[in-house]
TrEMBL record:
It comes from Sphingomonas panacisoli. This is M20/M25/M40 family metallo-hydrolase. Residues 1-20 form the signal peptide. Keywords: Hydrolase, Metal-binding, Protease, Signal, Zinc. Gene3D superfamilies: 1.10.150.900, 3.30.70.360, Zn peptidases. GO terms for biological process: proteolysis. The lineage of its organism: Bacteria, Pseudomonadati, Pseudomonadota, Alphaproteobacteria, Sphingomonadales.
Length: 464
């Protein structure tokens, strides 16, 4: 899972960012990051037959060991057709809880016949690195590995142990994600390099702002079932399971959960408002001032990009029912997919849906897989100061503020264990150029040099 960012071209540095990227103080790390990313993209780490995630793990381990990690401190563990990696750089003070750098090695399926280029043959063209995983998230992982190698090359010695880990099925079942979080639940803080990011202005290409991700909504699936005796369609009954389900789904579709704010979303909405369309920005500020402002709520609920920022959302996504064209339906099943605002239990949301459906014959069941409830991470002053310092080293004065994601990431599993986790990727893209999970995925290679500078600062400050 990757958040929004910005895009620039390679070769000649664009004037909009020239001052930030005029010097390359770590050319060895820059070259390593690009080479490692290309080699990782070439490995088809997709769940199922031929999954090469274990080979990506071996590639990453080799890079870490070559960069100074002891072989015994980089462990690869197989899980089914995938694997996960945990590398440890021991700190000088074993009393301190470790800093964890978190990422994943697997990618979403990509069919070569659908792409303009083979998704598993990495290529750099016109300043972009093309290939599945270029954005989500093999380039980010490679930049982080290169930054750690550069820190060791510079002779840095962390006081706090640094752990870098990569899960192997973040895009699917998240079994390795859960295992890693259980193993590292004693961590002080997690930097999830698969979240957060910066935004470029669509017209000028100038960096507008950077967000770090401090929370994400809980994913949940609730199954609704209605059963009836059935019978011959020539003798219809007053009660029909399909009609009952239709009425229940219509009520659920019209239902709106109470809009709400958290300290994090209050800050995020206030800071993001100037970058939105005028009407949306005004509504965001009005909602922050008064969460009961019905006009502001209507504006935000009516916009797909903002409806999820102000509360829980639930929508019907699948329906199946009946068993024959000439028979009364005996059973109808529907799925309701929810993205739950932090601080709520799935059971409470399911009960609220049941009341909204107002259908006594409907039974509700939580059928969620691969997700656990999690609350927002605290707005820790040390993390905020470190991320702002790191970002301002590459883009002085750039606005930096928090965000909340609607999708799930490995942060969920750490927050489930009450470990603060923050999306902190330094990758910038135009919103219109975010192709993660889609066709022709690409990321500008000019993110590499500033990304390493950013990581060098962030990793060092949080492990001192």
């Amino acid at each position: 899972m990757k958040n929004i960012g910005w895009i620039v071209a390679t070769g000649l540095v664009l004037a909009t960012v020239a001052s930030a990227q005029s010097a390359l103080p770590h050319p060895t790390a820059d070259a390593q990051a690009l080479d490692l990313a290309k080699r990782a993209i070439a490995l088809r780490s997709v769940a199922g037959p031929g999954n090469k995630t274990p080979e990506v793990a071996a590639l990453y381990k080799a890079a870490l060991v070559a960069g100074g990690f002891a072989d015994r401190d980089v462990e690869i563990t197989a899980v089914g057709d995938t694997a996960y990696l945990i590398g440890t750089w021991p700190g000088t003070d074993p009393r301190l809880k470790p800093l964890v750098i978190s990422g994943h090695m697997d990618v979403v399926e990509a069919k070569p016949s659908d792409w303009q280029r083979d998704p598993f043959v990495p290529v750099v063209e016109n300043g972009y690195l093309y290939g599945r995983g270029a954005t989500d998230m093999k380039l980010d992982g490679s930049i982080a590995i290169a930054a750690l190698t550069e820190l060791r090359r510079q002779g840095y010695k962390p006081r706090r142990t640094i752990v870098i880990e990569f899960s192997g099925d973040e895009e699917t079942a998240m079994k390795t994600s859960a295992i890693i979080a259980e193993k590292l639940k004693n961590a002080d803080l997690v930097l999830n390099i698969d979240g957060g990011g910066g935004v470029l202005d669509e017209k000028t290409g100038k960096p507008e702002y950077f967000t770090w991700q401090g929370a994400e909504k809980t994913y949940a699936d609730f199954e609704i079932t209605i059963t009836n005796p059935g019978g011959h369609s020539s003798a219809p009954r007053i009660v029909n399971a399909i009609v009952q389900m239709s009425r229940a789904l219509e009520r659920i579709g019209a239902y709106r959960f109470k809009p709400e704010l958290s300290p994090l979303t209050r800050t995020a909405l206030t800071a993001a408002a100037p970058y939105e369309e005028v009407a949306i920005g005004k509504a965001m500020l009005a909602f922050v001032a008064n969460p009961a402002d019905q006009q502001a709520i209507a504006t935000l609920v009516g916009n797909p990009s903002t409806v999820g920022r102000i509360g829980t959302t639930c929508v019907p996504t699948m329906v199946s029912g009946g068993h024959a064209l000439n028979a009364l339906p005996q059973k109808v099943v529907a799925n309701i997919n929810c993205r739950i605002f932090p601080g709520h239990k799935p059971a409470d949301i399911m009960a609220e849906l049941q009341r909204a459906a107002a259908e006594p014959a409907a039974s509700f069941k939580d059928v969620t897989e691969g997700s656990v409830p999690n609350d927002a991470s605290p707005m820790r002053a040390d993390f905020i100061a470190a991320v702002e310092k790191a970002m301002h080293k590459i883009y002085p004065g750039l606005p930096v503020f928090p965000s909340q994601a609607s999708g799930a990431s490995d942060s969920m599993w750490f927050r489930y264990h009450n470990v603060p986790s923050y999306g902190a990727s330094p990758t910038f893209l135009k919103e219109s150029d975010d192709f993660s999970h889609g066709l022709n995925e690409r990321t500008p290679v000019m993110n590499i040099a500033p990304g390493i500078t950013y990581y060098l600062s962030l990793f060092a400050d949080l492990s001192k």
